[in-house]
Amino acid sequence: MRREYITKSPEETRELGRQMAEAAKPGDVIALTGDLGVGKTVFTKGIAEGLEITEPVSSPTFTILQEYESGRMPLYHFDVYRIGDPEEMDEVGFDDFVYGQGLCLIEWAELIQEIMPEHYTQITIEKDLSQGFDFRRIIVEEI
């Protein structure tokens, strides 16, 4: 199933993340892709809000994983942009998180495609500057 959303502000992008998180269940995995600066972190902050997480959310670019446990279920936020080999994910216990009881959100998941679970939600965020600086097309697909 493929759905497409258009947002025209960071607030709308965040709100879409919030709405999606409200329907999330323990064990769900989201692969979040898109170029640098398209709003992946803004979307993730919305996910955290939808999970009722009270901690500040930031991009885990230099730590690979940020864990947020204060909400109705844990959020495991991966940023695998700097991963050279998918086997490096074993060092952070990737499988324990992906097959655990939280929501696992993985930025740049295409870099570790071969170790992704069989079923997950693929969310691609694209911008189109001809439509305006804050225009985003957000494509959601069940894999």
Which percent band covers the strand fraction? 25-35%
Helix content: 10-25%
Number of strands: 7
Distance between the termini: 8 Å
State the helix count. Answer: 3
Mean pLDDT reading: 93
How big is the Rg? Answer: 14 Å
Q: What pattern of helices and strands is seen along the backbone? A: EHEHEEHEEE
Structural class designation: alpha/beta
Largest sheet: 7 strands, mixed
Order the strands across the largest sheet as they lie in space: 1-7-6-2-5-4-3
Specify the overall morphology: globular
Task: Write up this protein.
By secondary structure, this protein is of the alpha/beta class. Helices cover 20% and strands 27% of the residues. A seven-stranded mixed beta sheet has the order 1-7-6-2-5-4-3. Helix 1 crosses helix 2.
Task: Offer a quick outline of the entry.
With 143 residues, the chain is α/β, with parallel strands linked by helices. The protein is 20% helix and 27% strand.
Give the key terms:
alpha/beta, seven-stranded mixed β-sheet, 7 strands
